Amino acid sequence: MENKKRLKLAKEVLSDPRNPKEEVQALQDTIYVIGGKWKLPIINSICNGNKRFREIERSIPGITTRMLSRELREMEANLIIKRTVTDTIPVVVEYSPTEYCYTFGDIILEMIKWGKEHRERIKKDLSSEL
Amino acid sequence: MENKKRLKLAKEVLSDPRNPKEEVQALQDTIYVIGGKWKLPIINSICNGNKRFREIERSIPGITTRMLSRELREMEANLIIKRTVTDTIPVVVEYSPTEYCYTFGDIILEMIKWGKEHRERIKKDLSSEL
DNA sequence: GTAACCAGTATAACAGAGTATACCAACATG
DNA sequence: CATGTTGGTATACTCTGTTATACTGGTTAC
């Protein structure tokens, strides 16, 4: 058992090509940053060209002004988006993506893909149940 | 303004190549299924070959037995994983991925990629601040 | 025989994510 | 002049995900 343990440890630390420890941490980091119900939909909306507060709000089913306001503030602080106020009359507030914002693109794309396939699967399951 | 509205509506419904409405919904569906702190790390762990309860637990920093127990039960019910009990003495409980489980692979991969790059960025930012 | 490992369950409590509803000032629209 | 839009804030509440701590019954190693 002593030997087994030592063997396992060596295996773990040295020869594993996809270092699991590093990957779990990376995964958990990502979840920490984009966790919650709203951040990714908001990023998606803004990257899709929505700029105004109400516009973004309308583009995300179920979100409340309060949550949108909170998340936007937080994401601006974290440099994920930029908030611009014009000095026209009336003032116009616009949100725009930063470069950092686009780094989430691939994740969002994969999640959209999964979501679409998920719907397909459910449709098929329902129709085959008849 | 009447015309503007009608134009916008038509544009929205017809000619948009990446139908935003469908995509937001797909995105929100996905978040609904894999939302929370633990589901993806657990899926990742099991897909990486971890089978035993304590093994999975040890592979995910910060998780408690309670959360792992709950999530495993839920994910078994949703057919994301399979739970097998042998009738040996002592009994051995093993968790294994279903095919469905692997459909999250691309999402997890992208999130691991993002997490790693995120660490790199932070490292660079810190070193450039000196 | 005692310490440790396995696969969890029990209980209690908390923090904060999320909801609901109302409200505001400034401006535009008809 | 009434109604609607914009960009939010205020208040209060719920809910549940998450944590913390302890415990169980069986097995195995030293």
UniProtKB/TrEMBL annotation, chains A, B:
<dbReference type="Pfam" id="PF01638">
    <property type="entry name" value="HxlR"/>
</dbReference>
<protein>
    <submittedName>
        <fullName>Helix-turn-helix domain-containing protein</fullName>
    </submittedName>
</protein>
<dbReference type="InterPro" id="IPR036390">
    <property type="entry name" value="WH_DNA-bd_sf"/>
</dbReference>
<dbReference type="InterPro" id="IPR002577">
    <property type="entry name" value="HTH_HxlR"/>
</dbReference>
<keyword id="KW-0805">Transcription regulation</keyword>
<dbReference type="GO" id="GO:0003677">
    <property type="term" value="F:DNA binding"/>
</dbReference>
<feature type="domain" description="HTH hxlR-type">
    <location>
        <begin position="19"/>
        <end position="123"/>
    </location>
</feature>
<keyword id="KW-0804">Transcription</keyword>
<keyword id="KW-0238">DNA-binding</keyword>
<dbReference type="InterPro" id="IPR036388">
    <property type="entry name" value="WH-like_DNA-bd_sf"/>
</dbReference>
